[in-house]
């Protein structure tokens, strides 16, 4: 039996013992002891069996209440399936009223502190339950008093008013007549008529966030009008689009040939390892962690910053992705007695929250150079082309609804086609809140951003011996400065060394393939047929080893050119034009106020780092690494397996938290 199963089994035994004690104390009325037992069960057996039953918000809340109330706090009681969904706190009855007010203040304060890193479904509330001595009862209302509360009518009346008079039942007409009469004089219904008008009529909400503010944001976040116009031209002329995302149906895409990929087991020899160790001791390598995304899959659309999410406990403390990556670099630095430069690339969505969190935590006491590379490219969404909507709705697989629902969907799509026609295909989408008109432009820009915003120049000025970068996604937790891989990259003298892992059925999004006889990483967006992906042996981890000088040469730059902002921007723009551009359709909400909203499809583009391997003038090589090193955490559903298959233990072994 595996060790985790033994721990869980012991946890169940402990829970049964605690349960027996809980029953005894319930019978004897020892509530203070009962509270101690329920809290012991939560921090012991419950978390042993289900580690995700707790989170940082809940544990900080318990800690603050313990500190504030000491002996008057009798214990925590998890009431729901997961902490946060329903919690109970037991207090000395003498402090109950004060504790109710304090708990809410503490919860709201914690929510404000954690709003960028932990998803909250609602504002925290404290429920005050009382026993209803009457049970269920009712009153009989007659004549003009026979009306429902005003809140009821604010919900059902707008739908009734949209009907023709002859469509209303006699009861509905009578009720509306009585409501109209009584709403003018009864204080209980004051304001009902004006609130109905607010609900029925659209509300203008863009007064303080219109085009002027949008232009300010575009300038602030690095909008490139030249690139935008080129992409718009390509979109309108059909050179790019949803259908054009795919490689040609005639493209030959096959699995890699034997010997095309080097296995990591073949490089763990003295030469590669010693070369890497020497480079690390000289400070020749740095880490770049991509942290520009908000991880919508990770938080089910909550929009918090994934890099800051405290998702797992290490050393009895909840740790975020950023803390783990800094702990890995810290352990490497100690092993080779050389401080490691570490970069987190950010976007307009993540820069301020990450900067604020690092400042509050004093960079988690990281001793090396820590840099935030702020994104300098932003996209402006566009009205989609009708041909792209047809491709999305008519060519791609669709769920067939029942007859009436299908008619409603077809009617809605016809209306959206008219909207596209009226707004102008390919025109800028600006008729919404400013942030709803912007979009990130893909992780290809993460490394070029370091050229433009001066991060790489600053790193080279502080460490002229820097020669190599290891870049990776924020959710690739196992990637670190492995000396053997670094030595392999150095001795092979390639521009890029790309890490891949053997593919599993749930690894989606493309992989390593032979495309018309050329070895390259191919994105899932580019595959002409979905089933091709199942034939590929290797999955792209997006972990790259970069020779700085050779990459600068690809961009027609040198170290000395990095101080020339105009030249750097032009070089990046020219390189971006050589990269594939993917068009995607996103649904964007436009809120009118009072609960009314519309959803419109908009077009946006992205460029992806893996496509660098498709450019013939860039020399690349591929290294197969263990899954423990290369797997990515995309969804919380992966965490159970990640914790139990040894992955979490592996991550802990390569970290040193400060």
Helix tally?
A: 22
In CATH, the architecture of the largest domain is: Alpha-Beta Complex
Q: Calculate Rg over CA atoms.
A: 30 Å
Q: Assign the structural class, choosing from mainly alpha, mainly beta, alpha/beta, alpha+beta, or little secondary structure.
A: alpha/beta
User: What's the shape?
Assistant: globular
Main sheet record:
8 strands, mixed
Can you identify the CATH superfamily of the largest domain? Answer: Spore Coat Polysaccharide Biosynthesis Protein SpsA, Chain A
Sequence of strands across the biggest β-sheet = 4-19-13-16-12-5-8-9
Assembly state of the chains shown: single chain
Q: How many β-strands, per DSSP?
A: 19
Mean pLDDT: 90
Provide the low-confidence segments as ranges: 205-209
Q: Give the helix proportion (percent range).
A: 40-55%
- The level 1 CATH classification of the largest domain is Alpha Beta
For this structure, the CATH topology of the largest domain is Spore Coat Polysaccharide Biosynthesis Protein SpsA, Chain A
What is the CA–CA distance across the termini? 34 Å
Task: State which percent range the strand residues make up.
Answer: 15-25%
Tally the structural domains.
4
């Amino acid at each position: 039996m595996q060790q985790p199963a033994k721990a869980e089994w012991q946890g169940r035994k402990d829970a049964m013992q605690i349960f027996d004690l809980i029953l005894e104390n319930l019978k004897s009325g020892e509530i203070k002891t009962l509270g101690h037992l329920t809290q012991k069960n939560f921090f012991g057996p419950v978390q042993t069996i289900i580690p995700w039953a707790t989170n940082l918000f809940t544990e900080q809340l318990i800690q603050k209440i313990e500190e504030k109330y000491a002996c008057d706090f009798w214990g925590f009681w998890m009431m729901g399936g997961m902490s946060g969904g329903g919690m109970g706190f037991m207090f000395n009855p003498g402090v109950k009223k004060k504790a109710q007010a304090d708990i809410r203040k503490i919860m709201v304060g914690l929510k404000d502190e954690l709003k960028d890193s932990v998803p909250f479904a609602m504002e925290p509330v404290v429920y005050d339950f009382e026993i209803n001595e009457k049970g269920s009862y009712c009153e009989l209302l007659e004549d003009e008093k026979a009306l429902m509360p005003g809140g009821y009518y604010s919900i059902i009346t707008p739908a009734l008013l949209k009907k023709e008079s002859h469509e209303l039942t006699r009861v509905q007409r009578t009720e509306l007549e009585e409501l109209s009469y009584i709403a003018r004089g009864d204080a209980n219904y004051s304001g009902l008529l004006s609130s109905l008008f607010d609900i029925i009529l659209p509300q203008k909400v863009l007064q303080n966030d219109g085009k002027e503010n949008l232009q300010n944001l575009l300038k602030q976040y690095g909008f490139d009008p030249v690139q935008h116009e080129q992409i718009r031209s390509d979109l309108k002329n059909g050179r790019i689009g949803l259908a054009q995302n795919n490689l040609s149906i005639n493209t030959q895409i096959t699995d890699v040939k034997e010997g095309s990929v080097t296995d990591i087991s073949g490089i763990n020899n003295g030469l590669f390892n010693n070369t890497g160790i020497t480079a690390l001791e000289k400070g020749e390598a740095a880490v770049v962690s991509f942290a520009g995304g908000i991880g919508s899959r990770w938080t089910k659309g909550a929009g918090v910053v994934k890099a800051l999410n405290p998702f797992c406990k290490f050393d009895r403390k909840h740790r975020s992705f950023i803390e783990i990556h800094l702990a890995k670099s810290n352990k490497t630095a100690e092993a080779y007695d050389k401080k490691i430069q570490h970069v987190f690339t950010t976007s307009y969505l993540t820069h301020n929250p990450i900067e604020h969190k690092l400042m509050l935590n004093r960079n988690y006491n990281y001793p090396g150079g820590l840099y935030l590379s702020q994104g300098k490219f932003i996209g402006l969404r566009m009205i989609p082309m009708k041909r792209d909507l047809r491709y999305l709705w008519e060519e791609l697989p669709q769920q067939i609804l029942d007859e009436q629902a299908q008619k409603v969907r077809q009617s809605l799509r016809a209306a959206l086609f008219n909207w596209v026609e009226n707004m102008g295909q390919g025109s800028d989408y600006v008729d919404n809140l400013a942030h709803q008109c912007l979009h990130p432009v893909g992780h290809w820009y993460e490394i070029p951003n370091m050229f433009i915003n001066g991060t790489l120049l600053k790193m080279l000025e502080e460490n002229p011996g820097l020669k190599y970068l290891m870049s990776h996604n924020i959710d690739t937790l196992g990637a670190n400065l492995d000396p053997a891989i670094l030595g392999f990259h150095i001795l092979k003298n390639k521009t890029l060394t790309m890490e891949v892992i053997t593919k599993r059925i749930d690894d989606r999004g493309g992989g390593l393939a032979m495309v018309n006889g050329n070895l390259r990483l191919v994105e899932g967006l580019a595959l002409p047929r979905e089933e091709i992906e199942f034939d590929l042996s290797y999955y792209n981890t997006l972990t790259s080893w970069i020779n700085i000088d050779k990459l600068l040469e690809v961009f027609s730059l040198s170290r000395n050119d990095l101080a020339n902002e105009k030249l750097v921007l032009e070089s990046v723009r020219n390189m971006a034009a050589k990269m594939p551009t993917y068009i995607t359709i996103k649904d964007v909400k436009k809120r009118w106020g009072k609960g009314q909203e519309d959803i419109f499809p908009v077009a946006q583009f992205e460029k992806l780092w893996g496509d660098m391997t498709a450019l013939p003038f860039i020399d690349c090589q591929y290294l197969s690494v263990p899954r423990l090193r290369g797997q990515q955490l995309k969804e919380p559903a992966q965490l159970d397996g990640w914790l139990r298959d040894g992955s979490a233990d592996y991550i802990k072994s390569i970290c040193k938290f400060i």
